[in-house]
Predict the structure.
Amino acid sequence: MNPIAIFRHAATEGPGYLAEFLDARHIPWQLIAIDAGDAVPHSAANYSGLVFMGGPMSVNDELPWIPPVLALIRDAVARDIPLLGHCLGGQLISKALGGVVSRNPVKEIGWGTVKVADNDTARAWFGGGQNFNGFHWHGETFSLPQGATHLLSSQYCTNQGYAIGKHLALQCHIEMTAAMIVAWCEAGADEIAANRSGPAVQSADEMQRQMINNLPKLHKVAQHLYSHWIIGLST
């Protein structure tokens, strides 16, 4: 099996629980650290799947790596190689496939309920669960590309997830680990402080208090989603 390519766009926003999931199943993966200057591959042909993690930038920023990433996403779709996007990663997939990424009405930072849509595709991905506490850190949102099925929503963000066949794009973060949450709270202290009056922004203390109960449950959701996603891997 060719490795899964996992694209990291910021040093603190690595694969997290996804890496644990893949390692436990002996599924090979390769980190492509955009933040450290790694080049974007010209083709998806050498990978069994492509995963795009989060990041503080916008897909609408004029960054040199964004156009080749968008081209790579389209190449993967053409080759039927599955895509998986987390937050910024979901936005990259949306933009590459003709969607629009724009400012969300409010910032979501911290834990918040995510509702699973009532359709057969959502039931296939989520196993019949109706909602879960997801982890959020975003100020933008994506529209659904043509052919996408809506999967998730939250009180403050209508489009929290969608699927197109074997491709999955998420606005929320299911890949979190305790270490990642602590690191994000430290790196994002100024952003938390600047938006502390927002209706969907938690303090660092509250995020870390809630993770004790929420993380094990989130890992179960992630395990179910990742298990469904790897069924489509190219071999």
Observations:
- The mean pLDDT is 97.
- Residues 105 and 156 are 7 Å apart (CA to CA).
- Residues 4-230 form a domain with the Rossmann fold fold (CATH 3.40.50.880).
- The radius of gyration is 16 Å.
